[in-house]
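JOB MANIFEST
job_type = single_chain_structure
chain_count = 1
residues = 281
[input]
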Amino acid sequence: MAIRRWQAAGAAALIAGTLASAGLPHGRAAAEPALPRADAAPAAGWSKAYHFGFKKSKNGELPSIAEEGFQPLLEKHGAIFLGDTSRKELYLTFDNGYEKDGLTGDILDVLQEKQVPAIFFITGHYVKSEPELVKRMAAEGHLIGNHSWSHPDMSTLPPQKIKQELADVKQAVAEVTGVQKMDYLRAPRGIFSETMLAASGAEGYRNVFWSVAYKDWDTSAQRGAEHAYRSVMAQLHPGAVLLLHAVSSDNARALGRIIDGARAQGYEFKSLDAMDKRTYR
């Protein structure tokens, strides 16, 4: 079965009011079609919306997007779904649309204790409301990725609006942390189009999807740390990009055990900046 990530009811309720207004230099295609005019609505075809989904890893098999209909687009635009599947390397990614109960601080504590790198994809709301946590992410060596300013469906936006969504987050993070570099983007709710892939790529971003995920984002339906641990460990595979939501208390409580369990199986946690090969299947 394909996993599809839908907007969480809890996240929607909290974000809606606040956001009402919310190397791999390797392998990029040598020639790509011209982008639609910056102020124009996306052209047909380029504006087709896709919801990222994948066939989960099971019994040692690698996950696959071959049946989802968008594999050629991800490959064409150099998006990340899997790393090198011949190596037991894992890439830990968190989505931070808003803060809940200090859980991101707990997650950072575990990452610091275990000496594990991660990337946090943050929104405009997050950087405005939690500047100290954003500073801490950067100070402790983690990457900060772009999750858009207002968490829109980016498949509906023309290139100029996509550019503005990304530029506003990048500028806000730079003002808080002093870090100017921002290379990675995660589409809100995993919804994307070719216009979005191309427009963000033109701004220097690589889109990051995932190959390990479970339904962790609903804060009203947490099922306990054991469920989180089993859900993640059952899907581990070489080159995995793990998607976890920082609003999940289950994730915060299970993270240390997940790291220890993965290392016991011979896995190493790496930064996305260290990914030197992407796999599409």
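[summary]
Residues 1-40 have pLDDT under 50 and may be disordered.
DSSP finds nine helices and eleven strands in the chain.
exit_status = 0
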